[in-house]
Amino acid sequence: MSEVIEVRSPSNLKVIGTVKRMSKDEVRGEIEEAYKGFEIISKMPLYKRTSILRKVSEILDRERERLARLLAMEAGKPIKDARVEVLRASRLFRQAADEAAIVLEGKNYRVDAYEYPPGNENRIVISTREPLGVVTAILPFNFPINSFAHKVAPAIAVGNSVVVKPSINTPLSAIEMRKILIESGLPESAVRVVTGYSSEIGDEIITHPLVSLITLTGSTQTGLSIASRAVSLGKRIIMELGGSDPIIVLEDANIDRASSIAVRARFEYSGQNCNAGKRIIVREEIVDKFTKAFYEKVKSLKIGDPLDETTDVGPVINMESVEKLSSVVEDAKIKGGKVDFVNKGPEGGYFFPLTVISNANLDMLALKTEVFGPVAPIVSVKSDEEAVSIANSTEYGLQSAIFTNDVNRALKISRELKFGAVIINDSTRLRWDSLPFGGFKKSGIGREGVRDTMLEMTENKLIAITLL
Q: What is the pTM of this model?
């Protein structure tokens, strides 16, 4: 058995690095080391932890170009988008530092407002928030730096240690992020990175008795499987799972704006975003005009080398993804869809053509499942009610978007949509890193966002004092 795993760039299939293929025993040792780290940083004054987080932000700003290039090579993310991801991660560490004191502030309860239990007029009751222990952070391939920040920064801020399990497709970014945390003054035991195949080490990072919380960003199937096992062992969970986000375009919408945003929402990072606009639902009165505008904008996108400054869309992550997308397209053809490969990428690497499916219907995989790639189904509807019905027809409920000039109409529709967010006249890709992010139905359990994550990663403890 090989002791290392090669990391290949999805754009040209060249080996860009290797990581250790860890065993269960090695992972067990990493978790035990992380618990030692928890005992250190949980006793560390908050100002010291937040000082470390601010230092991380400074280093990320300084190393932004180097990390962005690594991200472009490792994940196939266009360099201009990779720079944005590193910038977001930097800001996220700073936000965690800024907001930790507010989240951890505690509360003083006026228990003299209650007759029972007797004697409350002689009591002081306060609450404090305390860290849980070791957090397992399971990262996706598509945002290896920003997801690291979303999970690790809040955990460290409140005094937890973290064991990070990056995707086997993009482990190099997580290793670099850990180095930056150590350079910033964090004890080495407080953040550990484990690398290897989930089939070999996944069980250990979920079931180990020293792990208190598992936070995952990934597929619904994987997340629900992990969640059921974790909860049965009394562990906390934060699950940010799949999505099949609808974009609803009403007949009074600005077609140029709606089509421009829809193209970006669907094809940014080759459509490999949980909150990508994966289903486009258009009123029949404008569907032809919208589709024409959409096609023209897709044709204008440049597919190619992620390190090229002019590239808009790179490859998908691996051959498995290419095969899944091919099956979705073939399914659409069989079920009456008009499939157009509007824009094809270069030879070599895992490039998949930017694909539009018109005349899409609910029998197709393109509308029933989460399609993680550059395939855009366009559905024509006769009414707002039909648009809502199709939007709500999946098991997912992450984010959604409505385009219209009638805000009252949009707000009425938003009340019917079963999604964690409804974005009016903008992209499903909008996300505010400090605000709650998550979904209805099988799109998640709990919410991410700096404040919400800190609350999830702490225990609320009451302390009662009876005055003598």
A: 0.95
